[in-house]
């Protein structure tokens, strides 16, 4: 299809009309020219295609579909290949259902455990979020169906989600909140990007030219269309100018008319309207020309796949005395309503109408398993009788498994949690069961971290997250050892909410949420503060054990334009086959910018038979060592040593080495009378120019006098103090003390030399 020619035949009114939805889920048709409507649908862990009554909050029913594990769980797999396969299956379902775009993945950073939509997001770590987003986009789009990576950007809270301004400095945005979008846009080329509801430093994402055009298109090369989150448009004309192509859902014609008026009044260049139409139509036809509505949708096969994926995502947090896996011949008490009615997805626009679900109780029907509800989710209570019944069942069994976690009402799109606790009734139940049977195991179904006041009382904890419709089957497979758990936490579980770095400011004041913790999000903060946590980022146990050895770093020194290869060997030292995630972290040993101790820069999931070992390799480039420099508005590596740490959690990194990285970029310097000696002397060129003046300055700061002076004088001005006074002295200060340049003229000449102008 010649898109340009098509757009050139459209009237201004038709073009403005194309820039908003026909209804909740369709782009507009241009019947006169034979352009059909196309449909988009929520997801992304399955389809939420609404045929009839449409809404964006998951209230009305959608077609029966397959609910895969949500992003909180899939991130824990640390397995992009598996997530790509899940994407392929979702892409096939879209082809079957004639959907042009799935609205996801959602890659916002988990700034606080409280965010109501954390279950839809991948991680507190941008590198992991970027890798998982890239994989699912590649999978879905391999079926010629588009994705809409969302919510661009800095949408890490639900509180006042449509009006709040997320205020952060450029370095924080570039290092923490952008990279997942950046990697996915560059590597997976999503067909569309969904801008977020919120403002960023005061400007709505939906009308932010820096965000939607300068960064997204000019820097990262995005070439699809930008769609608004549903109802995110404030000033539509400003949005078109900024790079927002499609407004969703329909605007009832109001905003279309505003676009027409603005063009007629000369306030909006018609070329920008044409450009937005071209971008939308390019994607519309990319789908239409590759549509395969006869693609089969085998829901049973996808259910089986969802069960396999859910099991691979589970994180074994504790396993004292190797109580897990349980023995299939033992009597086991399943306790807690979630055992019969699992919570496996979150509320809101990603909510899927499952064609079937399997509970742990059903999945364990051939085993010696009893079931007691223990608590009621609907009433959020556990009566004395319920607890007594559960304790009695636990007492009779060899082991008790309490299925606990967060009910729907505790976390959902639309609002944030106000605390990190589990329901009180569930905590009480766990304590009572642990009293009755020392072999107590807790399975958690939740989308975000919870406090675990009972952690010392139970033998094992299995974090299953929101594992999709087949989570019951998956849980039973892991509990009884058919699957060896291999998930790792994609986020830190702090001991208490107050430890979280965003705690003081999360949610903000009125319509302003300042991201004051800057780049210190998640483990970047806990590690810097050396805080104890409940479970660290990257952590997860297995039914076998692994050992790391043989760290090989390809060079002692590299330039920031080179790449570095790091190799490490991992061995299965236990007696079962299993998988682990080899993780690589980089840290700047000493740096001018205040940086995290370590940051994840590579990971590989490895499966090993007992006794088997494998060498894995990582390639690191400039970005692995760089920070965002706000002076040059670019990535920069400061010359110096960097640590390379390898292991299987952010707090278990047995292999350590260093590499020196030399910068090939000279940062621009501009010296003024206010420049201090410390900074000038750190610059070798400037230091050599300053040699003569330095002699004079040293004299002023009384080296000689002090050496020959009284004891009292020596005590008054110590050597450390002299040094400090001198290094923090501005050039103008040295002049007023009688050192340094001694006239304005001399100062001007010195500055010319220092600034390379003489
Ligand atoms: C959500 C999006 C979703 C859209 C359409 C919005 O409320 O923020 O994630 O894709 O609705 O349902």
Could you walk me through the main structural features you see in this protein, from its secondary elements to its overall organization?
With 758 residues, the chain is of the alpha/beta class. Helix content is 32%, strand content 17%. The protein has 26 helices and 25 strands. A six-stranded mixed sheet has the order 9-14-13-12-10-11, with helices on one face. It has a five-stranded parallel sheet with strand order 1-2-3-5-8. Strand 10 (332-335), helix 13 and strand 11 (369-372) form a beta-alpha-beta unit. Helix 2 (12-18) crosses helix 10, helix 2 (12-18) crosses helix 11 and helix 12 (299-313) packs across helix 16 (471-479). The longest helix is centred in the middle third of the chain and has 19 residues, at 270-288. It is globular, with a radius of gyration of 30 Å. The N and C termini lie far apart (60 Å). The mean pLDDT is 95. It binds beta-D-glucopyranose (BGC). Beta-D-glucopyranose binds next to loops.
